[in-house]
Amino acid sequence: MNYRSTRGGEPQSSTFAALHGLAKDGGLYIPEKLPNIKLTYNELKDLSYQELSERIIKLFFTEFTDEEIKKAVNSAYNSETFTDESIVPVYKLNDKVSFGELFHGRTLAFKDLALSLFPYLLLLSKEKQKEDKKILILAATSGDTGKAALEGFKDVDGINIVVFYPKNGVSPMQEEQMRKQLGNNVDIVAINGNFDDAQSAIKVIFGSEEFKKYANDHNVMFSSANSINIGRLFPQVIYYISTYVNLVNSGTIKENEEFNVVVPTGNFGNILAGYIAKKLGIPIKKFISASNKNKVLADFFQTGTYNKNRDFYATNSPSMDILLSSNFERYLYYATGENSERVAELINNLLTTGVLKISDEELANIQKEFYGEFANEEETVASIKGIYEKYHYLMDPHTSVAYSVYEKLGNDKLNKDVHTVIMSTAHPFKFPAPIAKALGLDENSEPYSILDKVSEITGVAFPAKLDEVRKSEIRFSTVIDKAEIQDYVKKYIKNLK
User: Fold this and answer.
1) Of the candidates 227, 314, 230, the residue with the CA atom closest to the CA atom of residue 263
2) Which positions are catalytic?
3) Would you kindly state where each structural domain of the chain is located, as residue ranges?
4) Hey, what CATH topology would domain 90-110+231-463 get?
5) Could you tell me the pTM of the whole model?
6) What pairs with residue 192 in β-bridges?
7) Which of 120, 173, 369, 381 has the smallest number of Cβ neighbours within 10 A?
8) What are the tens digits of pLDDT across the range 337-366?
9) 109 φ, ψ to 5°?
10) What is the distance between the alpha carbons of residues 355 and 323, in angstroms, rounded to a whole number?
């Protein structure tokens, strides 16, 4: 299988695309053609998560041998990296709703599911490409990608990683996890700015010939750990397939029965992976893109206009505090009938004016499968409180945004006679303040004290991985202005040994 840019250009191998992350024209790599298969329950029902992973990764990384894929998968998904044997369990709330629990990995967030496997895919790609340069991974994070990427790449030979995050734009637990990260090849930098500032600066670096030459002169090449990289995106397809199998295995739905998914959405990689799973045969009826107050995506799915010229809000669901969703470009590619010229035109409009508008006909086609809605902070807290009181189930604020959106939608937008899966993206203990508020505790208390109290009240065990963080020392304290990101990267490259 070869890949090419969403904006056109020459095809490249999967290993080249994984190694380089972003296409030369600034577009994102997508398969020339998606695999022409229709997965069935009968062929999947007896497969473990690991066996299912092998099956899917083979479809998208055809240059790897079966043995290489098997080794990578088993290294990524095991009892040391995930606390639940099924990797992604499905929790049935009632006859109408289940939660796909994506947070049982090392950093308690859904990013672990891709970033546990991605380092192995990247190293294999480097080997296949006969690349001898040191790899420098640059990543922007709105909370969860950073820690998951750092954990995945720590102390990997030949690879260094620098993560940039908004100083006041992540939860206290997310920041603690990153600042206390172990590893001799990692660096964590806070910026005075927001996630979009960090992500945009990194994209400029990736697209700059001057930067590439500077890195090359120091025997370094850039790569990405964000979901713009195919090595991040396609492992996420796996858990949508496993969720379908689990729903049928448990008797929640029947074989071939459709189900809806509601996904808390920031950079659009998670929901896009579900869309690809549908194209491979998984019977997903409707995709609901759930936003917080930064509702640029919800507005797009309602109106056909993507307008990032708006106020940016720091909310209690920080991983979704994004106005420029990178993976959205990949979705546009499919939504416009794989029309690269149309994608290039739309993205150019977005990057130059801040606004992208599709036709009424294009929007009508999109709304057959996708819709968007948002929930504000008060609704998010109320939903956490309500579900805990009724079901004794504790949601994190991102999952709560998705559940709030589900409750808001009428049957004209989402057929609720169809079973719905809320994709639960993080462990609630990563977000002490909104959980405290929902449970009637003092949200301004010290975060670990809040979590001790929450554990006592709810019976939810304090996660071992967070307890490790609690006992660790802070290692990183650098804070820079957003305008200094590029200079920082140059200095980092210069000092690489």
Assistant:
1) 227
2) 111
3) 90-110+231-463
4) Rossmann fold (3.40.50)
5) 0.95
6) 481
7) 369
8) 999 999 999 999 999 999 999 999 999 999
9) -145, 160
10) 11
